[in-house]
Amino acid sequence: MTFRSHSLLGIALAPSICMVARAQEAPLQLHKGDHIAIVGSGLADRQQHQAWLEALIHRAYPDMDLTIRNLGFNGDEINVHPRSEDVPPTSFFLSMKKGDFTPPDNTKVTYKAGADFGADVIIAYWGFNESFKGEEGLQKFKVALASYLDTQLTANYNGKGHCRVVLVSPIAQEAIVGTDPAKNNRNLALYTQAMAEVAKAAKVPFVNLYDASRDLYAKTKTPLTINGIHLTDEGDKQLAPIQFKALFGREAGPMDDPKLARIRQAVVDKNEQWHHRYRTVDQYNIYGGRSLISYEGITNARILNQEMAQRDVKTANRDQRVWAVAKGGDLVVKDDNLPPVEATPPNRKEPVPYTDPEEAIKYLKLPAGCKVELVASEKTFPDLVNPVQMAFDTKGRLWISAWKNYPETSPTTKEFDKLLVFDLDPKTGKAAKVTTFADGLNCPTGFQFYKDGVLVMQSPDLWYIRDTDGDGKADWKERVLTGLDAADSHHETNSMCLEPGGAVYLSDGVFHRTNVETRDGVVRNQNGCIYRYEPNTGKFIRHAPYGFANPHGRVFDYWGNDLITDATGNVNYFGPAMSGFLDEGAHPQMQPFWDRPSRPCPGTTILSSRHFPDDWQGQFLNTNVISIQGIFRAKITEEGSGIKGETLEHLVSTDIQKNPNFRPSGITVAPDGSLYFMDWSQMLIGHLQHHLRDPNRDHQHGRLYRITYEGRPLLEPKKIDGQPVAALLELLKEPEDNVRQRAKIELGKHDSKQVIAGVKQWIETLDEKDPKFEHNLLEALWVHQWHDTVDLGLLNRVLSSKEPRARAQGVRVLGYWRDRVPNALVLLKKAAADEAPRVRLEAVRVASFFREWEAADIALLALKQPTDYYLDYCLKETMRQLAPWWKQAIMDGKTIASGNPEGSEYIVGSLNGAELAKLPKSTFALNAMLTRPEISSEQRKTALDDLAKLKSQKPVQVLLETLIPMAKTGGKAAEELARLLLSESPADLKSTRAELEQLAGGQSAETLRRFATAALIRVDGSIEPQWNLATKSVGSLVDFLGALQLLPDATLRASAFDKVMPLLGTLPAPIKAALDANGPGAARYVRIELPKGTLTLAEVQVFSGDKNIAGSGSATQSTTAFGGTADHAIDGNTNGDFESGTQSHTEENSKRPWWELDLKTPQAINAVTVWNRTGYEDRLDKFTLTILDAKRKPLFQKNHIPAPKPSLRVAVPLDPMGSIRDSAIEALVSMKKEPGQVFNGLAEMIVRGEEIPMALKGVNRLPRNAWSADKTAKMLDAVTAWAARTEASDRTSPEFISTLKIARDLAGSLSAADAAKVSARLDNLSIRMVVVKTVPEQLRFDVTKLVLEAGKPVSLTLENPDAMPHNIVFVKPGTYKEVAESVQAQPPGKLDSQGRAYVPDKDPRILAATKLIEAGKKETIQFTAPAEEGTYEFVCTFPGHWAVMHGQLIVTKDMAAYLKANPK
């Protein structure tokens, strides 16, 4: 069947519906040459393909030469029109004029039209999607509709005057099996009535299809809709004459008229051309962000807009044929008047030759025992081009979707994409015959079998196509879904797969705006998502909304867990954890289950075949089309509630230099147990790297190969097609996933009642002692699910299975059956308390599908047992989805998480401050208010007072009762509570002196000690008692100095001036004597640890004074994983991206992981700065830092330290003089006393080279009139010397930058000439910091030109928010292309001597380069700009990126002059 000219076969003709013409004037009067626009949502959209009404109009008005354009758009509402970026709005098409049009509010976009269309008449179909807002949304709808009509009635789209408008109601919902339309029909009736009222007020004709359709349903025995809401072809045929009469006031005429059939066929042909224009695929590349990327000076927008103009002309040509047929004649459409389209130049000038398909085998490498053979190629089967998906059917035939016109057809395409069926030789496994099942396709990116046909993706529709006459070719189709976007055909639904229970999984990538109408309302999604669709019931939901770039791969394992692959980055996810239900939005970033070797991946499968060794079973196979150009293998093992993958030897790899166009695009297990894989066989890969119409895009090649394992017999293919139910059920015991799936597909052809009856009998024959019994029983449940038949007894048996993985799947089925299982929440509660984490994970996931607070209560039960990463992730998402219900329940006084302390804590942690404040005043709520960090000071104080009243205590007593348990851990909430101590009266504080002294003790967190000390000073009314205690130890003195700054009484604070000022130079005698006796430094070991989890450190800096001494030590750690050795954390690189290769990493989910630094000798240290891993910051939350002496005696310990983001400095009072001086400086500047004297003291410190950054910071906080000019020059000399001593790697730190900024301010007190000299010296010591970012999904850097000063150091950070990995390589002038090409065939594991992929080793053309930076990561490199001026270059050398991802590096000796001359 060729779908380019839509077949009308399989449509039963109905008898004509007789209607009496009205005597009055028709509601709609047409004039010769009228342009009629049909607008609205799904009802309007689908009519362009069914075309009965349009055909009737042309038959009735043959001499008027009417031009009709269908602008319907599935999912639209009056004021809701979701489109991909910059897609032309409906208003553009309503007033389309030949030529170019640039919207005044969006001048970067130009739309091109090849023909005029100015609407004279608008037939508007609204109300269906709006009706789901119910009675509450009715008034808003009426206002919006009135405004819409006013706008349309006054619009002048045709340039000749106002247009005429007819308003049409939605149809009623039909009562099909398993549905109750009552609720929806009540709303539809309300909205129909509202439309009638608004239309009457606006004096607009109104057509009531709601009542008309209900009457039709009542008269018809067979359904007239495919799902209750969308008409079949027959339904549209029966409704069309009713619409016609309502519009024109007369009978439509006979529906079995041969002339009408000819007109309709001509209309369908015309509408197909229009549909390819109005709903063209790749809209983001034609109009959106990628449309303006230039390839050899030519953008996609430029060429594809010219093609859109051609489609306009093709549509207009077919208008003329419609008119000719309506007049009783015909017209041959020649399309010889199409406007020209410019030629697109290639951006790779030299074509890469294609290796012969047989010869290519010589360059393939496979594991020992594996053999590869050619099955088919373009040489013997010319239609096998660009194979994108394949699957074996129940007859053992191999179906392949051939995307010949990738990335999409053009207006002049002659040979279209196809769905091919290969018959294989049973002896050799090679292709013996091919049949084109469906032709005339455009971008058939995915398909899957259903009943006796196949579901095929034809964006924006999903077609169900069948062969009804047995000739092996499709001759019948139905659009079963509409509204699946294809803004980028590369990202549209692909790799369609079946779950074990029969649902089909579809997908969207980035840029897409999918809007699918369902019986439950419109399912809307922006960007990436996996969808779940039940063809038997029409149910369609968002399964996994997520920030996917392009989720090509989906596969279900033996136990029904889905593994989801985001192709662009080849990031692989454990589906059960990320597929909880969300009403809106998307799930946040989730860690992959496998650290894959490289990207990207167009297809995956699970190896399930006894033809291969036992230890190969269940392996995850992952194809790769760039970098390796082979097939990866991963061993999958259970881990907690999820899984983990381990890379094995590649299944297939190739010599890319000799076999450059080998691109494995998919792999599957054959009925005989062998593996078949497709070779996309393309020189150019990807949309973004090359122009859509690059002439080097191949439309001629495609290969198919087969892998067998020598020495192991092939399997005997099971007979499936045409088998009886009993035989098919026996096949569900087979180990091979593919056999069981195809058996269930075949069962889908049988009557469901017979199948279910057979399953019940089959269950009785199962042997409970069979090791596979639990899985067999699960298969029985999946068959019930496939046939949409609920069996509560069977469900309960599976939920009580001995096998936890079966129980988990029982929970999953329970979730999809929840509306038909009376005690669903009771069963779910039991699962949430299951001993197996996988079962608990599914219970938490399924809880998200309910819409009641009790589901949240059940999900929280998972916290009563140990959790892991996936459980934590899923629970967080479920609680987010259920928040409206459980939060309201709390407001209503419901008890949640009763007897579940962990659950209660979780609930409290999930409520924000505003929500806590709304709770009834209880001990629970008020305690939460006190201890939450985000609560405002006023709210916290109010909560304290309220709690004190509730407990009949003084506020200070409640305050300390709350604070003391928090003393060791500290944190923001504890700090804010401690601050309240200073708002209490000294008299009230005096009564709690013992508690204050306890809080001021050494076991409390630093900030709490200082607030307690400040409170004690207020109690005493003098600094003396606390000063006397402070002078006994360094720690006490530092706390005292910190407490001074907290005192609200300025006079009391300043009274310490004479005691603090001398500390800038000397120490109190008791402290000095103790230090003299013990030596200057005692710290030997620096230890970081967690109670459990994964410990990853980007960098640890240990400061002695202002010098980082960590690099002189040696590091060890508890365990090592992923190459993250301990020494990476002291290599001087603070890059937070793990892919930079500069981070430590322990084994994941360890008990008490630790990292330790040995300083080799005792050292006086004053601070430790910890740099965290980017993207996994929370792993380091609540870490412990311990400093030990040479005998491993703890000198300092700080617990529950929050996760650094990205870094955190912890003060360590083990450099006594430095710590005391730093604290003294802060105390002195806070006193605001004798600023001149303080300046002099700080100046002397700076000149001596002591505590320069802190001293300068103190100077900066003093009044400028306190600065003494006669000391400035010497101070600046000292600062310059300090800066020169600072390691280059530390010159980009915030502290260094801040210090030099203050120094420049200080230089302002010098003469202009001297200030300029100082500034120049400081500039020479500074490192210029440059940040370059990649632009997501556009394959470019955010800059095309960088300017650097010759011979000067630079710190460059490459940030990669894109989904693909990138690097940046700086090269000598004119060499970027040659450098990039030299590594295009290099495998990603081949690194240069600096550990960088795709960088030529020791190449003199390379100036500097980053490593390959993965998605969401960044790396900083430091290098010196060339001394010689010139135009150098930078480029991303990842395979395929260099052609568009490059720029210029301008090196000049005078940046200021260059930038002045070149401001842009």
Automatic annotation (TrEMBL):
GO terms for molecular function: copper ion binding; electron transfer activity; hydrolase activity, acting on ester bonds. InterPro entries: 6-blade_b-propeller_TolB-like, ARM-like, ARM-type_fold, BlueCu_1, BlueCu_1_BS, Cupredoxin, DUF7133, FTP1. This is Dehydrogenase. The lineage of its organism: Bacteria, Pseudomonadati, Verrucomicrobiota, Verrucomicrobiia, Verrucomicrobiales. Residues 1106-1232 form the Fucolectin tachylectin-4 pentraxin-1 domain. Pfam families: Copper-bind, DUF7133, F5_F8_type_C_2, Lipase_GDSL_2. Residues 1112-1122, 1132-1144 have a biased composition (Polar residues). Keywords: Calcium, Copper, Disulfide bond, Electron transport, Metal-binding, Transport. Residues 334-354, 1112-1151 are annotated as: Disordered.
